Amino acid sequence: METVRGVARGNRKAISRAITMLEDDLPGSRSVYSGLYRMAGSSFVVGVTGAPGAGKSTLVNCLVREYRSKGEKVGVIAVDPSSPLSGGALLGDRVRMLDHAQDKGVFIRSVASRGSGGGLSRATRKVVVALDAAKYGVIFIETVGAGQTELDVMKVADTTLVVLMPQAGDEVQAIKAGLMETGDIFVMNKSDLEGADRAALQIAPFIRERDGWRPPVIKTVARSCIGTAELVASIQAHRKRLGQSRKKDSQRALDEVKDALRHMTESLTNGAGRDREMARVLPLVEKRDMDPDTAAETIIGRLLGGRPARRG
Ligand SMILES: Nc1nc2c(ncn2[C@@H]2O[C@H](COP(=O)(O)OP(=O)(O)OP(=O)(O)O)[C@@H](O)[C@H]2O)c(=O)[nH]1
Ligand SMILES: [Mg+2]
User: What is the pLDDT of residues 176-195, one digit of tens each?
Assistant: First the structure.
């Protein structure tokens, strides 16, 4: 498969093409995904979440610089749950990311929900697989906001950074939004502003140790990349810790298969409306000659029968 080979060589056009194929479920995307998935699995994925304006993009910019200086190829995925045509936030990201726009070792891509089944976490996973297969060793995922969607997207990450800032009541928001359970590392950004120490102290009691890892709180000034070397050291420490347990891998596999199942049952359900079998059973259910469960079973049987699972 030419696209897969192109991605393996790190060809940027091939990577873009592969991502578009996967996102839009274009013909041939199944075999592209299958090929890429086999090559993937060595990248390290860092999720970056937190309130709007906390400095996530500015911070990622610094982190990209840190990892580039270590010679790593770096991918950046900006996830925008709301608008397919990226709004102000992403546009801002683009401008800031221009720092790295000319760098061949950096690949930046945004992912937007198109209202298609499976949603953002599925789309994000696929972009990760493509960049992973292209040997981008570190991949950052930035999400805007702190809803359930973002928490789902963060499941894709190996290490999750929760970015907070002082004076915004962020601590309270983070505690409410379930971010305290999500974060592997807490970043108190904008530490040049007043109240950073106090804010850091306020969240500390809500941070729980998980699997022998106690999430640290690290102060940064992303605007001048202060504290980001320390942050990288902490990310690497967490990565090392993860490397020692296989649990993460089986959890990831479970999440991925569940995502795929959800997507497929959704498209089955949507496609069923136009199915011949549906046309046959519907009048029966209407007349109560057949119950809806039996009708659904019949349709699934036919749909699956007509679409055998691919092997290999
Ligand atoms: N004072 C101060 N300002 C900062 C710092 N880091 C970022 N900012 C500013 O905060 C604003 C928001 O930064 P972004 O990086 O766009 O924040 P974000 O979290 O990516 O924002 P969204 O993507 O819109 O959610 C910008 O004006 C930055 O210049 C910092 O350490 N100190
Ligand atoms: Mg941003």
Answer: 667 788 899 999 999 999 99
DSSP annotation of 308 reads P
173 & 267 share domain:
no
CA of 102 to the centre of ligand 1 (A): 22
Is residue 56 in contact with ligand 1, taking CB distance under 6 Å?
Answer: yes
Q: And the tokens for 215?
A: 């999430």
Provide the whole-model pTM.
Answer: 0.86
Q: Do 169 and 191 fall within a single domain?
A: yes
**CA nearest to 190, candidates 169, 145, 220, 163:** 220
Q: Whose CA is nearest to atom 10 of ligand 1?
A: 55
The C-alpha atoms of residue 33 and residue 19 are separated, in whole angstroms, by 9
Whether residue 61 has its Cβ less than 6 Å from ligand 1: no
Range of the domain at 16: 1-39
Same domain, 30 and 141: no
Do 110 and 128 belong to one domain? yes
* Cβ of 55 below 6 Å from ligand 1: yes
CB distance 92 to ligand 1 below 6 Å:
yes
